[in-house]
Design goal:
Strand order of the largest sheet: 1-2
Helix content: over 70%
Oligomer: single chain
Keywords: Cell membrane, Membrane, Transmembrane, Transmembrane helix, Transport
Distance between the termini: 32 Å
Strand content: under 5%
Order of helices and strands: EEHHHHHHHHHHHHHH
Structural class: mainly alpha
Protein name: Iron complex transport system permease protein
InterPro entries: ABC_BtuC-like, ABC_transptr_permease_BtuC
Radius of gyration: 20 Å
Largest sheet: 2 strands, antiparallel
Low-confidence stretches: none
Mean pLDDT: 83
Subcellular location: Cell membrane
Number of strands: 2
Family: Belongs to the binding-protein-dependent transport system permease family. FecCD subfamily.
Length: 346
C-alpha cells in the first residue's frame, strides 16, 4: 500500500513493493544492532572468542574451545534468540492490529500462558501423544478462543480483554502447576526452568524448528500486513479495495497463534516481547499498519539484547531471559495501562 514518503521498488513485472525511507533506515539500523549484539554474545566473557579471531572462526569453524562456543554454547543460542524474538514481534504486531488495541498482545490475553501449558502437557504429562509444537499451538488456540468468547465483545474492549486474559492466564498457570506437582522432582525442575522462558542450552535442532516456522509464516504475515493496512480504514473500505476484512482477520489470528506457539515450544513462554516490539516499531517508523518486518527485527533485537544481559551483566547474570523481560515489560505494561486509562479507553 502506498503511503506518503514511500517509493515503489519493482522487480520486473512480478513484484512491486512500497518502501519508505524512514522505515528502511530504521530496519537497517536495527539489523546492524542485532549483528553487533551477536558479535558481543560470541566474544565477551571468559569463554568468548577473541574478536580478531571471530571472522575466521565463522568461516572455518575451529575445534577446541572456540568450536564449542560456536557450535554448542552460544552459536545456536543466539540464532534461536533472533528467530524467537522475530516470531514474537510478528505475532504481537498481527494481534494488536487485528484487535486495534495496543494491549491485544499474546502475553496479555493469555495466549503465551496457554501455549506454555500445552507444551508442558505434551512434554511431561502425556509424552509422545502429541508433539510439543502441536500441543503448544493447541494450547494457544484454546486460550484465544476462551478469551474471545468470555469478554462478550470479542477483542474490542481493552478492559474486558485484560480481565479475561488474566483469568485465562491464571487457569493456564494453574494447570501448569498441576503438571509440575505430579512429576518427579527432576522432571519438575526441568519443566520449571522451561516455563520461566529460557534460551540456555538451546540446540541447532531448536534453531531449525523456529527458523522453519518463520520461513513459512513470515511471507504470509507480510502479505496479511498489507491487507491489515486497508482494514484500518474501515471494513467497508477494505472490502471495497479487496482487503477481505473477515478473512484477513481470521488468517492473521491463525498466523499469530502459530508463531507464538512456535516461539514457546523452543524457548518457553517469554513474556512482553510481543507487547513491546510492535509499539516501539510504530513510534519509531510512524507508519500505520502491522509493520511486520520492522516488528520482527525489533522483537529479535529486544530478545538478543536481553539474553546478552543475562549472560554478561553481573546483576542479572544466569537469570532465565524470561524473568528479565517480565521485569522490564511489566513496567511498560504499567505505562500502557495508565496511558489507556487517561485516554478513557479503559
Amino acid at each position: 500500500m502506498y503511503t506518503p514518503g514511500s517509493r515503489t521498488v519493482r522487480v520486473g513485472t512480478l513484484l512491486a513493493v512500497p518502501v519508505r525511507r524512514r522505515s528502511l533506515v530504521q530496519g537497517l539500523a536495527v539489523a546492524v544492532a542485532i549483528v553487533a549484539v551477536g558479535v558481543a554474545t560470541l566474544t565477551l566473557g571468559e569463554l568468548g572468542i577473541a574478536p580478531e579471531r571471530l571472522p575466521a572462526a565463522l568461516i572455518d569453524v575451529p575445534s577446541g574451545s572456540e568450536g564449542f562456543v560456536l557450535k554448542r554454547l552460544r552459536g545456536p543460542r543466539f540464532v534461536v534468540a533472533v528467530a524467537t524474538g522475530a516470531a514474537l514481534g510478528i505475532s504481537g504486531a498481527l494481534f494488536q492490529t487485528v484487535t486495534r488495541n495496543p494491549l491485544g498482545s499474546p502475553d496479555v490475553i493469555g495466549l503465551t500462558a496457554g501455549a506454555g501449558a500445552g507444551a508442558a502437557a505434551a512434554a511431561l504429562l502425556w509424552p509422545g501423544a502429541v508433539s510439543v509444537p502441536a500441543s503448544a499451538t493447541l494450547g494457544a488456540a484454546i486460550a484465544t478462543v476462551v478469551v474471545f468468547f468470555s469478554t462478550g465483545r470479542g477483542f474490542s474492549s481493552p478492559s474486558h480483554l485484560i480481565i479475561a486474559g488474566i483469568g485465562v492466564s491464571a487457569m493456564a498457570v494453574a494447570f501448569t502447576q498441576y503438571v509440575v506437582l505430579v512429576q518427579s522432582r527432576d522432571q519438575a525442575a526441568v519443566l520449571h526452568a522451561y516455563l520461566t522462558g529460557s534460551l540456555s542450552a538451546r540446540s541447532w535442532e531448536n534453531a531449525v524448528t523456529i527458523w522453519s516456522v518463520l520461513a513459512v509464516l513470515l511471507p504470509a504475515a507480510i502479505a496479511l500486513g498489507r491487507r491489515l493496512q486497508l482494514i484500518e480504514m474501515g471494513d467497508e473500505s477494505a472490502d471495497a479495495l479487496g482487503g477481505k476484512s473477515e478473512r484477513t482477520r481470521a488468517w492473521s489470528i491463525v498466523v499469530a497463534i502459530a508463531l507464538s506457539a512456535a516461539a514457546v515450544s523452543v524457548a518457553g513462554p517469554i513474556a512482553f516481547v510481543s507487547l513491546t516490539a510492535p509499539q516501539i516499531t510504530k513510534r519509531l517508523s510512524r507508519t500505520p499498519g502491522a509493520n511486520v518486518t520492522l516488528s520482527a527485527l525489533t522483537g529479535a533485537l529486544i530478545l538478543v539484547t536481553a539474553d546478552l544481559c543475562v549472560q554478561q551483566v553481573p546483576l542479572v547474570e544466569d537469570l532465565p531471559v524470561g524473568v528479565l523481560t517480565v521485569g522490564i515489560g511489566g513496567l511498560y505494561l504499567g505505562y500502557l495501562l495508565v496511558r489507556e486509562w487517561k485516554k478513557g479507553t479503559m
